[in-house]
Design the sequence.
């Protein structure tokens, strides 16, 4: 029997449904071209789930995700729910779904389409050949450590604690080494081992795990240096692995190398192949419903799903090549068009990419 992959599809709010619809067309085209089979099941999540079910993450949505091989998510949130109490906010649903699905890493690729080099704030010659992935630890570190305030002789003091255990570091390190093995086999582990104890444990652990991946070249980079090198020589990085807060900052920095938020895909992974895939951008309420949003980030999220969860590398290549071809031919949505009067809409961009896909 054919291997049918189950994908939970969560369109969400704002432009979420528009961009997800185009990504679903890409799934369908992949079935036709490569003979793969996908079974998609739609579920409510975020603001729309608050409106219809009274909670951002309904139990049945979680069940649909848990019984799937992967989740494709559009985006959630919008002004309508901004003043809700914490438990009735779409963002609370995002934290909840990541926790419930055991997702402990966030993966963000940043690569440059030659024809969009001009859209970046960096010089084209610096960007040449940039193709990197940031692997960020998502569940530990200073964001989740103990937090409190206390009175001192110098007034009130606030404390945030940063903690990491070996198990948390080992699992993210293995994941990063394994991703590097599917690419150019270079891993940069980013820490602040000259001052932080958590970073020293991070470095020791990554060094120990490295013995199991002798084919991957490992370098350790201090976070401040990494922030500089990302702007100086971005093309020298392949995979970057780092802890939660450093990853939060560096992944946004890396994202801006590419110029537009409408182009960036991401994945959240746990143990095993399961993953949640979504564009980096939000629900863009300012342009929702106008049919002008850029679907490329969501379409590239499907390519990332093929690579990281299903191992369908040929199909992922086909999507990425199609996106490149369409951009090279000069087609642009408003967010990446220099001359806005020539911009095409969401449907047209999706269709052009589907038509350009080949085996
Ligand atoms: P945003 O990413 O939604 O929008 C920022 C700007 O980029 C806007 O001008 C928007 O029009 C533009 N933009 C974003 N995606 C685009 C696309 N695909 N095509 C063309 N233009 C695009 O960020 P925001 O405005 O800060 O947030 C809006 C809402 O989205 C908020 O409620 C926020 O909480 C939510 N959000 C959700 C997620 C998520 O679901 N993971 C992530 C970020 C923000």
Sequence:
């Amino acid at each position: 029997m054919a291997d049918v992959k189950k994908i939970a599809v969560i369109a969400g709010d704002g432009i979420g449904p528009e961009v997800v619809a185009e990504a679903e067309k890409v799934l369908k085209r992949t079935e036709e071209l490569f003979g793969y089979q996908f079974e998609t099941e739609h579920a409510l999540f975020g603001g729309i789930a608050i409106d219809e079910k009274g909670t951002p993450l309904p139990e049945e949505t979680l069940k649909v995700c848990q019984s799937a091989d992967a989740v494709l998510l559009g985006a959630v949130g919008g002004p309508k729910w901004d003043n809700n109490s914490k438990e009735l906010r779409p963002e609370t649903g995002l934290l909840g779904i990541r926790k419930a699905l055991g997702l402990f890493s966030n993966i963000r690729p940043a690569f440059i389409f030659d024809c969009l080099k001009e859209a970046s704030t960096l010089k084209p010659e610096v960007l040449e050949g940039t193709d990197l992935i940031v692997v960020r630890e998502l569940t530990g570190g200073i964001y989740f450590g103990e937090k409190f305030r206390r009175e001192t002789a110098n007034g009130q003091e606030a404390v945030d604690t940063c903690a990491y255990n070996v198990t948390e570091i080992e699992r993210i390190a293995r994941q990063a080494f394994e991703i590097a093995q599917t690419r150019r086999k270079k891993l940069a582990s980013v820490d602040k081992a000259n001052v932080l104890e958590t970073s020293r444990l991070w470095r020791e652990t990554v060094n120990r795990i490295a013995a199991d991946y002798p084919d991957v070249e490992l370098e350790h980079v201090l976070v401040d240096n990494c922030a500089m090198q990302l702007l100086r020589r971005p093309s020298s990085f392949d995979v970057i692995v780092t802890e939660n807060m450093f990853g939060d900052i560096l992944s946004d920095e890396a994202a801006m190398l590419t110029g537009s938020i409408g182009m960036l895909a991401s994945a959240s992974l746990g143990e095993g192949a399961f993953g949640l895939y979504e564009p980096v951008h939000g629900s863009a309420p300012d342009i929702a419903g106008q049919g002008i949003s850029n679907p490329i980030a969501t379409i590239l999220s499907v390519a990332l799903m093929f690579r990281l969860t299903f191992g369908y590398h040929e199909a992922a290549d086909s999507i990425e090549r199609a996106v490149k071809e369409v951009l090279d031919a000069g087609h642009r949505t408003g967010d990446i068009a220099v001359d806005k009067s020539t911009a095409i809409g969401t449907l047209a961009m999706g269709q052009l990419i589907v038509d350009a896909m080949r085996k």
Observations:
- The longest strand covers residues 4-12.
